[in-house]
Amino acid sequence: xxxxxARTANTWRNWAGNVxxxxxRVESPASVDELADVLRRASEEGLTVKPVGTGHSxxxxxxxxxxxxxxxxxxxxxxxxxxxxxxxxxxxxxxKRLNAVLAREGLSLTNMGDIxxxxxxxxxxxxxxxxxRDSASVSAQIRALEMVTADGxxxxxxxxxxxxxxxxxxxxxxxxxxxxxxxxxVEPVFLLTAREExxxxxxxxxxxxxxxxxxxxxxxxxxxxxxxxxxxxxxxxAGPTAPPGRVSGWIEDELLSxxxxxxxxxxxxxxxxxxxxxxxxxxxxxxxxTYTDIPYKVFTSPRRVRFVxxxxxxxxxxxxxxxxxxxxxxxxxxxxxxxPVEVRTAPADDIALSTASGRESAYIxxxxxxxxPYQAYFTAVERIMTGYDGRPHWGKIHTRxxxxxxxxxxxxxxxxxxxDRLDPDRLFANDYLRRVLGD
Length: 439
Description:
The chain contains 14 helices and 21 strands.
C-alpha cells in the first residue's frame, strides 16, 4: 500500500461528541489487500488498529491511539443473488445506500433499526436492532461475513464455513478482525402500514403483552414527568402505498420531531425547571396517523437532535415491571428528563454476544440531550436494569465489565475463545474492549 491511502493524524469524535480519539494515523484502504497490508504494518510497528464507521456509538468502541481505519473506499454493492435471495455489500456502505439499492432492485431487509446513517459494519458490530415480534436484529439477518484478521488473513465465515467464528463475528465489537463485506438475507420488497397513536402509560403497560403479540413490530415512547406515551405499530400490508402527505409528514417528522424538539431540548438544558411543562406539551403534540410505504421508509426516521443514550435488554417478561420502577424513580427524584424513554422488543437469536442471545428480549432506552449531565440519571437507570439481569447495548453508554457480562451471556466464553485464537496479541484492543471482554 502506498501513502496515497494514508491520512495525517487528526482528532476523531463520535456523533454525540462524548468520545474523542487521537490516532497516530488514519488509513482508508481501497481494497481488501490494502487493508491486509495496513494491518501487517501496524502489527510490525506495535500499533493497535480500530475500524470506525459514522460514529453513532456512544461508547469508545472505535477509539484508538493507534491506526484508525476509515472504510470510505469500501462501499460497493458486490452482488445481488436472486436465487439465494442475498445481497453482499462492502463494510463501509451506509445502510441508507444499501436500502436505496435494494428498493431499486425490488428487495428489502426484513427488519431494521430506526436510523440508517450507520455503515453496514458499524451497525452489525455493535448489535443494531429495531423492534420485532418474529424478526430480529440487523446482525440476525447475516448469512456470511468476510473479514481480515490480525495476521492479514482474509477469512470468510458462515453457518457452514468456520461456524464458530460466524456465531461470534456477527456481533464482534471490532475485536475479531476488520469486516470487509457482509452478506444479508433479503426478500421481495413489501409494504408496511404504520399506525402511530397516543396512549396512556397505564394502558400501554397493562396491554403490553397483547400489543406485542398482535403486531409484527411494536414500540412505544414514554414521556417522563407525564402519564403519556406514543405508540407505533408496523404490520405488513397489501397496500396501496399511502405515504405521509408532504406537508403533514414534514410537520410531524421535521418540524415537531426535530426542529421544535431541538428548541425544547435547548430550553430544557438552560432552564431544567421548565422540563416537566415542556414534556406535557411535547407528549400531546404528536397526533395519531396511519401511513403505508416500503419498509425502510417506515422503519427509519430522521434524527437530527443530538443526544447521549443508554439502552438495556431485559428478559421480555421483566419489561413492564422495570419500566414502572423507572417511572417511579423519576417521579421521586429531582431529575428533569427532556427525552422520551423508548421501548422495543426482539425474539431470541443464536449470536454469542447478541443482547437477545438465547432469550426473548425487551429493550428500554433512555436518552438525554447532548451536553446535559447524564451520569445521575443513567446510573439510577442502570441500577434498575441490572436488577433484572439486563444486558447493555454494546454501542451505548454503560459501566458493565467482563465480570458482569460473563455471567449475563451464557456464550461469553465462546466469544473470548474465538478472540484468543484470531487476535492473541490484541491488535484490535482498546480500553473499552479491555473492560467489557477482559484481557
